Amino acid sequence: xxxxxxxxxxxxxxxxxxxxxxxxxxxxxxxxxxxxxxxxxxxxxxxxxxxxxxxxxxxxxxxxxxxxxxxxxxxxxxxxxxxxxxxxxxxxxxxxxxxxxx
Length: 102
Description:
Blueprint: H1 3-19, H2 27-36, H3 42-48, H4 52-58, H5 61-65, H6 67-77, H7 86-101
C-alpha cells in the first residue's frame, strides 16, 4: 500500500472516527499509527494486536468505556493490515518505515 493510498483511507476513516464514540484522546495515536507507523501506547497496541486481556489491563476509564466503539471502528474503517495480530502490527510498522525511506 502506498502512502497516498493510506492517506486517502485515513481521510475517510477519520471522518468516521470523529463521528464515533472512540475516546478523543486516542485519535492522535491512531492517526500516527495508521499514517506513519509510529508505535502507539500500550493500550492501543494491545487492542491492535487483538489482546483483550492486555487491553483491559492497560485501559484508563475512558478507554475501557470506548473499547467497543474502538474495535468496531477498526473493523469497519481502519486499513485491515494495521491491526488484528502481533504479526500484522509488526508488518505495518516495517512497511511504514519502508514507505518513509522511499
